[in-house]
Design a protein that fits this description.
Length: 206
């Protein structure tokens, strides 16, 4: 379990209260107060990060309704003992293929599609190996998020880059490139390797 800094806990709580208030309040004076709470949470985050309050507020305004965790799905694929990773165009680092969940699609189908779109490989999701609270991993997300990590069986295809992933390759788990840590944490890879070594291993969850 990761110790969360007090400033991050307070900023999240302020944001959650403001988002719920903006979603349900009908009183103009209350709405003004909730907007101020949202601004205060952004200022707390900006004071502790490299982002500006304006950038954080822009991200906040994309989240509407009652605050609930976002869902990130990731597909672990091994071939000849090597791990599939994709290079992220946003930071140039590498991650297990996946992304934010879409409405109306089953989790297994979603992770299979994400792997196909980001790597060019057709896979079959065979096991849910872990469910992580992303806010207990380092580095920590501003928003509450859960990561669903699936073990996927390689079916066919060859590594093929996409618009979001300029490079795709299989890597020796002992010689991995720099990871895009918000997307793929070393703990996720350790758990994936444990499931590869022990097919009977139970799903890990927070």
């Amino acid at each position: 379990m990761t110790n969360t800094p007090l400033w991050l806990e307070l900023a999240r709580e302020l944001y959650s209260i403001s988002q719920a208030g903006l979603a349900y309040s009908k009183n103009d004076f209350d709405l003004e107060r909730y907007h101020r709470l949202q601004q205060l949470s952004a200022e707390v985050l900006a004071a502790q990060t490299a982002l500006s309050a304006e950038e954080i507020l822009a991200a906040f305004t994309a989240q509407v309704g009652y605050a609930t965790p976002k869902i990130d799905v990731r597909g672990v694929v091994f071939r000849a003992g090597k791990l599939l990773l994709v290079q992220e165009v946003t930071d140039g680092r590498w991650a297990i293929p996946g992304g934010w969940a879409d409405l109306g699609e089953a989790p297994a189908a979603m992770v299979e599609r994400e792997v196909r779109e980001e790597s060019g490989l057709t896979v079959r999701a065979s096991k849910l190996i872990a469910v992580y609270d992303a806010n207990r991993l380092q580095p920590q997300e501003f928003f509450s998020a859960y990561k669903l990590v699936f073990l996927c069986e390689y079916q066919n295809g060859e590594p093929t880059p996409s618009m979001e992933t300029p490079a795709v390759d299989f890597f020796d788990p002992l010689a991995l490139p720099p990871l895009s840590l918000f997307r793929t944490n070393p703990a996720m890879i350790r758990e994936a390797l444990a499931h590869l070594a022990d097919p009977q291993r139970k799903t890990w969850f927070d």
